[in-house]
# Entry
Amino acid sequence: MHDPRYYKRTIEKRTLPSAVLGEERLVRVYLPPGYNDLLSYPVVYCQDGEEFFQFGRIATHANRMILDEGVEPFLIAGVAVDVKKRTSEYAPEGERFSAYQQFFTQELIPFLEDEYPVRSAPGQRILAGDSLGGTISLHLALDYPDLFHNVLALSGAFLPSTQERIRKETDLAWLRLYMLIGLDEQEVKTERGTFDFLEANRTARALLEERRTVLQYEEKPGKHLWGFWQDHLPTGLKLLLPD
# Structure
């Protein structure tokens, strides 16, 4: 990761006014090496966008994958979140959850597709998130299967409300999902309480597999931290990006 080419990154900051949320939302857009607006690109949509860039090093990972590992160039759109409103937007029972889904599908996606040559097929879009960001990403795919077929979840908060949402589905053979969970995540403290994320992910895995989800599931030694997630992010991206 010390090759200087990996750190020459083009990241644009865009501000998107949202009528649905009643505020502006910052979106960081990574453009790959050799970017050409006459071409078209797959796109990774990240919840907690600033954290994915700062702590997940996703742009550095992307440069290495594209420059040295033969991965097709792709764009990344990292959507910022106000920490004070994060749970209300990302948790299924949150008061802003429905509004955030509307923002994402009705405002963010059209904005990105108007401004950048990103592909619109559901198989060319990846939703990525950590913890509750993984939760909202999975719910977006389940609620809008005509828009999203790929989810990358880093220690997703797949608690009972999400498990119940999965149970409503009968066939998820169209869904491609990468799940990473740490073996040291049995007592994760959140503002809503302390939860066993490991057991929650194991339960969600069983439900998803029963419904034929195309799933890569990994349990690794690690805690509920970016220091654990960042090293496994490329594995999920390579799995879900188009061949």
The chain has a mean pLDDT of 96. The first helix runs from residue 49 to 54. The CA atoms of residues 87 and 94 lie 6 Å apart.
